Fold this protein.
Amino acid sequence: MPSVKLGYNRTPMDIRSVTLFCDPDFPAARMADFFTAVPTAFSDPLQTTRLALPPFPEWWPDEVNGEAQVQRHAQQLAQQWQEAGASYISLGPVLLSHDSRWIDQIPALLSATDVLFATVEIANTQGQIDTARCQQAAQLIKTVSQILPNGFGNLYLTALANCPPGSPFFPVAYHQGGPAHFAIAVESADIALQAIQAATSLAEARQNLVEAIETAAFRLTLSAQKLADAYQIPFSGIDFSLAPFPTDDKSLGGALEALGLPHLGSAGSLFAAGFVTEAIGRANFPGCGFSGLMLPVLEDSMLARRAAEGVLTVQDLLSYSAVCGVGLDTIPLPGDVSEGALTAVLLDVAMLASRLNKPLTARLMPLPGLAAGDPVSFDFPYFADSRVMGIAGGDLDNLLVQGAQLSINPIQ
């Protein structure tokens, strides 16, 4: 991949994380040596080093059960891996193939510490949707929303639809098992914003973005390969999803509006989302994970603003997922949202992922004591202020509440 000379100036891009994928018995000393070397291996600023493990039902000790035992074991593991250099740890998903009783362990795992992440699969990579698992995931989301008074616990939980292993972004990250490898997740919404602001036509905006991605990826790949060679841990790619930070200069919503939208949520927004995602697909780099648009409402200042204004809805965001992104992320919902309404959203995500054969997630955050339209503010530097979003319609009924496992053929 050749380095490309850009026709405009841009600031350095942040690395959201370098994520190590390995089995839980990976040697702690080797892990520590690797993580110690990571911060100095890259010229771009690095935020975190992370660890992604295989699905925890496949390695969690059988004798560790009951809330107290699960919490103690989780705390011990978290401390061990943190001491080895992992800022955050993904425990991997409860897959459709796993006994659903493993889902019952997740509240204890997430309440044990603030560094563990977990996920629940609602549609697998073979086109199977489990509607009962959608209902169980909805129940879990409601339960986890009560772990902390402000509902923050669901930051550490997401539902997966058609998500293979190997994406370095959390919470979706998990290891398939076997040899260790590492991947890079970038915080790159500013790349899109600068590329579009510097352009005088759609063609130029697309070319600017492709060149910016290729230039950054070339630099990251050189550094990553040196790290891989030094520690004999293969480099498996970059997830170049355009992840934001909650300031206007790093807003993906701002980048989409810079194309000429009156506001995100208006007609034309789907075109803008598809346009930017298609440009990412044109870039030549060693990709992994989603490599699309990331539209997390609370992590993006413009998305948070448009949601607060009521012009951007959950349904809008889900429709954009058809042509871009990772699904629904950090969506602030009423604390009394029903399990039926949450299940309905999860069914939509599962079907969209299965029919389009693309990975999607749903990280939904019911906020206790708040209703639709209420202001949302967290004492958390990675979240912007917004308002609670509602879910259209009511609870499901009839055939949709009957548990079923369905095989869904993708659109040809």
Observations:
- The chain has a mean pLDDT of 94.
- The radius of gyration is 20 Å.
- The domain at 14-407 is CATH 3.20.70.20 (Anaerobic Ribonucleotide-triphosphate Reductase Large Chain).
- DSSP finds eleven helices and 13 strands in the chain.
